[in-house]
């Protein structure tokens, strides 16, 4: 026989009475040649460390980080994509579906990874990614100072021509970790500014108007988010 009228609910606030807070999810894909450091950059942003050893990514690896901006909690879902054609071809459609922002990565010590950016941008454009989806350019492995092949001036020109911000950074150098964070936070700030952007789970979200990207004054991207 039940005692009293408690109904068996554990003590504490009634979840049904708590205000419903929906966490927005932003899907950010990281694209570029194999070996440029996409996995290490996403690891650095989501986990705060540089992975000791990485294998080539097969298909995609998902990483997540919840950030708080102006009192709103936002889940950043980072898609660490495969750079090798054979590990990505069946996945490409999924990469671009309902994407909110794109990070193009090259290796500052490998000119071919920079010249190949044209192909990555073409692939992105070919998958009906709305032109207003924010894109940024990231030159990784800046810690290898003596091996740099891609001058900042060239990268900056390319970024300007494609209306992207440029960040030059290193996933490896712990002193650069704030700069790695800035890449993603800058995109999140910009996406947040699109007030009516629905959750990623909503099918067929429409392209939203958004401010034009502004180039950082410093090629390194150091400093505050320009958004
Ligand atoms: N010196 C240095 N090495 C790095 C940096 N980032 C990544 N690496 C190294 O570059 C190699 C490739 O890194 P990954 O992150 O696995 O490259 P990826 O772009 O994910 O490659 P795929 O998964 O094949 O597309 C690894 O040996 C990393 O240790 C960096 O900032 N500096
Ligand atoms: Mg990888």
TrEMBL record:
Claim: Amino-acid biosynthesis is one of the keywords in the record: no
Top-rank lineage group of the source organism: Eukaryota
GO biological process: one example: Rab protein signal transduction
Record's subcellular location: Endomembrane system
One GO cellular component term noted in the UniProt record for this chain: Golgi apparatus
Principal location class: membrane
GO molecular function list: G protein activity; GTP binding
Reactions it catalyzes: GTP + H2O = GDP + phosphate + H(+)
Membrane topology, as annotated: Lipid-anchor
Keywords assigned: GTP-binding, Hydrolase, Lipoprotein, Membrane, Methylation, Nucleotide-binding, Prenylation
Cofactor dependence: Mg(2+)
EC number, UniProt record: 3.6.5.2
Matches recorded under Gene3D superfamilies: P-loop containing nucleotide triphosphate hydrolases
Region (Disordered): 200-227
Ranges that cross the membrane: none
PANTHER family listed in its UniProt record: PTHR47978
Family named by the database record: Belongs to the small GTPase superfamily. Rab family.
NCBIfam families, alphabetized: small_GTP (TIGR00231)
Protein name: small monomeric GTPase
Organism from which the protein derives: Prunella himalayana
Underlying gene: Rab33a
């Amino acid at each position: 026989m039940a005692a009293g009228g408690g109904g068996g609910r554990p003590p504490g606030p009634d979840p049904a009475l708590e205000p419903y807070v929906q966490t927005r999810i932003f899907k950010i894909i990281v694209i570029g040649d194999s070996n440029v450091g996409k996995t290490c950059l996403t690891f650095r942003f989501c986990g705060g460390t540089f992975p000791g050893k990485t294998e080539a990514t097969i298909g995609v690896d998902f990483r997540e980080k919840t950030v708080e901006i102006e009192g709103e909690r936002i889940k950043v879902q980072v898609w660490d994509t495969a750079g090798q054609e054979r590990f990505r071809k069946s996945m490409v459609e999924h990469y671009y579906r309902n994407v909110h922002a794109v990070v193009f990565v090259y290796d500052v010590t490998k000119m071919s990874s920079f010249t190949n950016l044209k192909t990555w941008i073409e692939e992105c454009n070919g998958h009906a990614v709305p032109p207003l989806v924010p894109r940024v350019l990231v030159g990784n492995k800046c810690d290898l100072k003596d091996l740099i092949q891609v001058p900042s001036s060239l990268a900056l020109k390319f970024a300007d021509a494609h209306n992207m911000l440029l960040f030059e950074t290193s996933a490896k150098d712990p002193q650069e970790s704030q700069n790695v964070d800035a890449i993603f936070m800058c995109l999140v700030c910009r996406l947040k500014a699109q007030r009516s952007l629905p959750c990623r789970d909503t099918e067929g979200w429409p392209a939203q108007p958004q401010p034009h990207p502004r180039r950082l004054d410093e090629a390194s991207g150091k400093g505050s988010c320009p958004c």
